[in-house]
Every structure is written in C-alpha cells, then in structure tokens.
Write a structure and sequence with these properties.
The protein is mainly α. The protein has a domain of about 80 residues: Tetratricopeptide repeat domain (Serine Threonine Protein Phosphatase 5, Tetratricopeptide repeat, Alpha Horseshoe).
Length: about 270
C-alpha cells in the first residue's frame, strides 16, 4: 500500500511539473520579464513606450497585457496598438497576422478601418526592398503580389469606410499602386504581342482598362487592344476601341507596326 501511494504521488508530481514547464514555455516574451500588475498599468506603460518610439518594449508589454488579461477593457485597444507596434517594429508577419485576427474576430469594431489601413501599409512597404532599389530592378517585370494585397486593403478602407480619417491617405496610396499594377499588366501584354498571342494580349490590355482606370498605362492598353483585335480580324472591336481612344486622347491610335515576324504560339509547329 505505501508503495502504491508513493507511485501515485510520483506521477502526480511529474504531471504538475510538466504542466508548469508547458505553461512557462507558452509564455510570451512580455510575460517572462514583466512583473504582475493591473492591466491599466501595463497599457499605460505600453503607451509611453510607443510615444518614445521604443516599439520593442511596447510589443513586449502589449503581448503581456493581451496574454494575461484577454477580457480586460484595455485589451481590445491593446490588440489594435499591437498591430501598429509590430508594423513599426518591422515585424511584418506578426503585424499581418494580428491585423487578420483582429478583422476576423471584431468585424463590427468601430476602428476596424484602422486594422485594414495598417494591413495596407505593411504590404505597401514590403516592396521594393533595399536591394531592388539599389540595383534598380525593373519592377514592371515582377509579379506585384504585395502590391495587389496592399491595393485591396486600401480599397476596403476607401470603399467601406469613406469617412475614415485614413481614407484620404489610403486613396493617395492606391493611385501609386494602381499605376504599378497597370504597368505590370502592360508589361505582360507586350510580351504576348511579341509572341503573337493576340487573344491573351487583348485580354490583358482590356483588364488594364477595366481595373485601373486613370492609370497612365491605360493609353497603351487601348493601343494594344486595337492592334490585337486587328490581327485577329475583329474589326468591330478594333473600331470600338479606337472610338474610346479618340474620346480620351488626342490624335489617332499609333500604328504598333507589322507582325514581329515570330509565329503565333499556336502555330509554332505549323
């Protein structure tokens, strides 16, 4: 009987020790170092750190606040502040994850526009990076995934929250992104034209006109559409596109030249 009791105590102690170790391992970086205190005190300390641009400390304190007091009044605002702190602290993935979580869990929050705006900012500043700027990489030739994500987030702010204090800046950034995305579409359309893929070229150019109205690249998009339609024998569509061009730009549609001499991709073995 004493042996059985000893074994029971042993396993109970082992289980408690494992639970303690697990709890310690799951603590955030803030929980490990900050003393136990009221949520209002933690929140005030985080605000002071953010005011002094000490975002690493702010992140540590805000993480502790959220982990220790998930239902406190200060925590909801702390989750928003944490998105910004991650953004300013260059913790890109954490900022995006936090923004997505906040948007998903608080769809009716009065400041959800802020979460969308910061999400747009994070994606906006991801490209071009320092190496691309240094070596002058041709961004038109690169698929602009982050630009699309940033554009979508800012568009959400502008269209769903037009009275938001962030709507003006979001709209301004959208113009830059619109031009970047339109330039990439034209880059691809030119490639298709060189390959003799007239249908694909016309479709890319048409998407540019429809999705990025106002971008400088729209003019060339219309020119490509006319040239592609003519090569496809679609005279009516070519004439309609010329009419749109004439209504928006001076002069006739410039001749983009004869065929490049390359066979269309579907006739490579003909």
């Amino acid at each position: 009987m004493p042996l059985t009791l000893s074994r029971t105590r042993f396993w109970m102690l082992l289980a408690l020790l494992a639970a303690a170790l697990l709890a310690t391992g799951c603590k955030t970086r803030g929980e490990k170092e900050l003393p136990q205190t009221a949520p209002s005190v933690l929140y005030e300390r985080a605000q002071q750190s953010m005011t002094s641009q000490d975002f690493n400390t702010a992140i540590r304190v805000l993480e502790a606040l959220v982990a220790r007091f998930p239902f406190a009044e200060e925590t909801r605002q702390a989750r928003l502040d944490l998105i910004y702190a991650y953004y300013r602290g260059r913790e890109t993935e954490s900022a995006l994850d936090s923004a997505d979580t906040f948007i998903r869990e608080n769809p009716t929050h009065p400041r959800i526009d802020y979460a969308w705006y910061i999400k747009g900012l994070v994606e906006f500043e991801r490209t071009p990076n320092i190496l691309e700027r240094t070596f002058k990489v041709d961004l038109d030739a690169r698929p602009p995934q982050t630009a699309r994500k940033s554009y979508a987030a800012f568009r959400k702010v502008v269209e769903d929250y037009p009275k938001s204090e962030y709507a003006h800046d979001a709209r301004r950034r959208m113009i830059h992104l619109r031009n970047r995305l339109a330039d990439y579409q034209i880059y691809v359309a030119r490639y298709y034209m060189k390959r003799g893929a007239w249908i694909a070229a016309a479709q890319r150019a048409k998407e540019t006109v429809e999705q990025y109205d106002g971008a400088p690249a729209v003019r060339e998009a219309l020119e490509i559409m006319v040239a592609a339609y003519e090569r496809l024998g679609m005279k009516e569509l070519a004439d309609q596109t010329r009419t749109v061009y004439a209504a928006n730009y001076e002069g006739a549609v410039p001749d983009r030249g004869p065929n490049t001499g390359k066979k269309p991709w579907w006739k490579l073995w003909g």
